[in-house]
Known about the structure:
The chain is of the alpha/beta class. Strands 1, 2, 3, 4, 5 and 6 form a 6-stranded mixed sheet that branches. It has helices spanning about 15-25, 40, 60-70, 90-100, 100-105, 125-140, 145-150, 165-175, and strands spanning about 5-10, 30, 45-55, 55-60, 75-80, 105-115, 115, 155-160. The chain has 2 domains: about 5-115 and about 160-175, Rossmann fold; about 115-160, no CATH class. The protein is about 40% helix and about 25% strand. It starts with a strand and ends with a helix. Flavin mononucleotide (FMN) binds near residues 11, 52, 82 and 115.
Amino acid sequence: MSHVAVVYQTQYGATQRYAQWISEALHSDLYKLSDVNAQVLRKYSTIIFGGAIYASGIMGSKQISTYFSDLPDTKLIVFTVGLSNPKTTNYQSIINKNFNGALQKSISFFHLRGAIDYKKLNFLHRIMMFALKNKVKKSAHTSPETSLFLETYGKKIDFTDKESINLLVRQAESLI
Ligand SMILES: Cc1cc2nc3c(=O)[nH]c(=O)nc-3n(C[C@H](O)[C@H](O)[C@H](O)COP(=O)(O)O)c2cc1C
């Protein structure tokens, strides 16, 4: 058994892809969030959690927060996966919404860029993206992000990038 666990929560697979890459790089154990419990996680000295972002919510953040709160001596890393460009996005409000202040202090955060295939979206997600498109179109505010969103609306795009895990992997290695 490794001392490191990578745990993930995904809807369409981009977060799982990153979790697999990170787990391979660190020779760690890899779990879906639904396959772990507090007892399993207690065995690890470092836990890396990855969650996809939907409407500023990090999937699984509530559940993993419950586990993390009971692991004061475990080194904790969280990575998010979303379509926003991590180079130009401030994630603090998303972090505040998903992790309480005390936990934030013991977590190192990383943000990775995901993928979307509109054809594969479920009904709710399709409606949400449609509503967002109409809102963005009506808004007077434009940015590179909103332009990219409108250009790629309805299509399949994939920003996942194996190289982008390197900083996280180095940080995790320094903790082991
Ligand atoms: C309804 C909906 C809402 C989304 N909201 C956000 C968001 O708030 N921020 C963001 O960066 N990406 C957002 N995304 C993009 C997803 O985070 C992206 O597709 C990610 O790769 C999904 O990961 P998964 O494939 O692991 O589920 C949203 C996508 C959908 C369909």
